[in-house]
Write the structure tokens for this entry.
Amino acid sequence: MAAGPEGGGVTATLLPHLFGGFGGAFEFILHKQSSNVTGGNKVGGLEKTLELVWTQIYVSALALALAMVIAIPVALYFGHRGKGELIAVGIGNAGRAVPELVVIALVATVIGVGVPTLTIALAVLGIPSILTNTFVGIRQVDRATVDAARGLGMTEFEILRKVELPLSVQGILTGIRGSTVNIVATATIAPLIGVVTVGDYILGESIYGADGVLAGAIVVAILALIFEFALAGLQRRLTSKGLQLQAQ
Amino acid sequence: MNSALIGMPLAAVGEVGEGFFKKRTEGSLGCQASETHLFCWDWAKDNIDRYGTPTLQQFELVIISVLIGFAIAFALALLAQRFHLLRSPLLAGTGILFAIPSISFFLLLLPITGRGRLTAIVALSAYTLQIIYRNVMTGLDNVPESAKDAARGMGFTDRQILWKVEIPLAVPEIIGGLRIATVSTVALATLAVFAGGGGLGNNVLNEANLKFPTALVIALVIVVLMALACDVVLLTIQRLATPWRRAPKAAA
């Protein structure tokens, strides 16, 4: 097993230590390595890593879609009616207190393993952020604007679609962004639920070694940051010009 | 896959190890046979002592990390308030830290700070920065100009205005941020096990408990209760610190 630095010795030997540690990890991502548990089968390598990354993106996308399909309509409905504020904010707060690791492990033991179970579990973890932010976004739309729309003869559905929705895009996207980052991050421990994502490198130290663990951490971090930046860019582009001016 | 799971926990259990082999009585084994039960009281009664040390470890991680995070974020916010050019870069910087998945963060620090509590504390405090920084900024920005003008008219210096007017008026938002940061840190600290930092993750990520609902439910309940307790304490502090706010509306 590759020898990762095990604590201590931080001062003088920091730099070689540092590059030594991460260098092995990058090597692991790019080229197959021999492992002492798999009986000669090589582990890691670019091809395998990309395959795991793809699984992680795939299950994350599934879960995000499910979370959006559930959370957005509910939040739109209650936000438009102005009801359930305590519940919506409460769900957002409660969502933060939930330890993902325990939930995923619990779902795996009680419900079982597999992609459908994982999708539902990840979606449940992603719902609070979308629900709360969408709700708050709709509620923050100026009531005078809504009244004006009503005065123009718009139906309630038209008000929601043509006035409240465009004006609360920021809130909705903030929610989706938060929940995406959370889902992608949590998909790292998906191997606990039987779906092999990049997290397998992390959870399988005995097979992949310290380099493999670190490689998994690097890949997951890059993956999450790509999503974060992409969604931040999208958010900027989807905000109407008027709102952008207002913000400045 | 199975062996993959065994590898990590054994390495990570660390100091709670001694309690681990001590107390596996026959009663608890009977429970394990019926894995389908969501909760087994006998096992819980028999093994609750195993959660003591990890719970304390987790609480300690939370308190230390939030305090460090608060000190840094508060200083950054004051700096940004003074030099407006720093506002966006600091927001973006803390935002990037916040976007890195926590498991990755813990593991990426390993080659630098080594396995142990230090790594967990560094990562956990880094996570609180964004939340606290943003709330302190919002709080300070929302102080009405008229209040500052009045203070200036009374002969306050800029420093006095900051500490006697702006910061006290921003307390609801500041503690609001502290509440969000603390509650999320309680949950995140469960992952400190990946950094060898102890905590309740130890009771989750080991071969026996990972497949045993009762053990997981206990960990879940402790984490949620700890988060709730921290939230209530901070909410009380917020109320006591802002006697002029009659309406008890939480900033979070």
